[in-house]
């Protein structure tokens, strides 16, 4: 089989993950149009995932029942795990993809950069100093938790830097949009055959 014939065409994933803390159902289509149905129980988090879906052109149908009476930690963390696993499953063996992605996104005074590598080696560098501890009722420390969970569940190296920002809402939105656009670039097909690695494999 040639490299072009082995490229995964139907890049979709369906995951149901249930624990004592969360019950999550996700349908993901990497090659979508940004169609989304989101219900995490956390309004601001839905807003960020909405931006992620739109700017990455990912179709996401996500519903979560979590222990929000405790706080939002388990919901956000487990959501990162499920979305990360779904991307890993949908991408497959990484044949034909660009592998690397980089994006700068401004949001008024805020500027975020995301650089990532779909390499099979999970890692997160997250450098963002927010002005406060919350935006609305959402705890800003959970932004890093989401990306940490995503990186380690997907096997993707992710570097996120908030370069400028005074308004925490703008800062978060710039981060999620830059992540979406970098990931879109990385999962797109390069037009080359095989896996983009001198080793011949990404794991």
Q: How would you characterize this protein structure?
A:
By secondary structure, the protein is an alpha+beta fold. The chain has a single domain, classed as Imidazole glycerol phosphate dehydratase, domain 1 (Ribosomal Protein S5, domain 2), CATH 3.30.230. Helix content is 33%, strand content 30%. The chain is built from four helices and ten strands; from the N terminus they run E-E-E-H-E-H-E-E-E-E-E-H-E-H. A four-stranded mixed sheet has the order 1-2-4-3, with helices on one face. Strand 3 (36-39), helix 1 (43-56) and strand 4 (59-66) form a beta-alpha-beta unit.
List the topology elements.
Layout: E1 12-18, E2 22-29, E3 36-39, H1 43-56, E4 59-66, H2 73-91, E5 100-107, E6 110-117, E7 123-127, E8 134-135, E9 138-139, H3 141-154, E10 157-164, H4 168-187
Parallel strand pairs: 3-4, 7-10
Antiparallel strand pairs: 1-2, 2-4, 5-6, 6-10, 8-9
Helix pairs in contact: 1-4, 2-3
Report the count of strand segments.
Answer: 10
Radius of gyration: 16 Å
SSE order in H/E notation? EEEHEHEEEEEHEH
Indicate the CATH class.
Alpha Beta
* CATH A-level architecture: 2-Layer Sandwich
The fraction of residues assigned to DSSP E strands is 25-35%
Overall outline: globular
Q: Which spans of ≥5 residues are poorly predicted at pLDDT below 50?
A: 1-5
Major β-sheet profile: 4 strands, mixed
Main β-sheet, spatial strand arrangement: 1-2-4-3
The CATH topology label is Ribosomal Protein S5, domain 2
Question: Mean of residue pLDDT?
Answer: 93
* Structural category: alpha+beta
Question: What's the CATH H-level superfamily name?
Answer: Imidazole glycerol phosphate dehydratase, domain 1
Distinct helical segment count: 4
Helix content: 25-40%
What is the domain total for the residues?
1
Distance between the termini: 21 Å
């Amino acid at each position: 089989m040639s490299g072009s014939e082995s490229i995964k065409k139907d890049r979709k994933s369906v995951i149901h993950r249930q624990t004592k803390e969360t019950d999550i159902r996700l349908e993901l289509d990497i090659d979508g149009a940004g169609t989304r149905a989101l219900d995490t129980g956390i309004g601001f988090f839905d807003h960020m995932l909405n931006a992620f879906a739109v700017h990455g052109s990912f179709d996401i149908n996500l519903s979560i029942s979590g222990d929000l009476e405790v706080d939002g930690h388990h919901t956000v963390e487990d959501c990162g795990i499920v979305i990360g696993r779904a991307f890993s499953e949908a991408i497959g063996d990484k044949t034909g993809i660009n592998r690397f992605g980089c994006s700068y996104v401004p949001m008024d005074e805020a500027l975020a950069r995301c650089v990532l590598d779909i390499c099979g080696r999970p890692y997160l560098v997250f450098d963002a100093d927010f002005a406060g501890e919350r935006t609305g009722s959402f705890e800003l420390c959970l932004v890093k938790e989401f990306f940490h969970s995503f990186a380690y569940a997907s096997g993707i190296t992710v570097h996120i830097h908030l370069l400028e920002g005074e308004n925490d809402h703008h800062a978060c939105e710039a981060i999620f949009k830059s992540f979406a656009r970098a990931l879109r670039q990385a999962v797109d097909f390069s037009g080359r055959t095989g896996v983009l690695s001198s080793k011949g494999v990404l794991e």
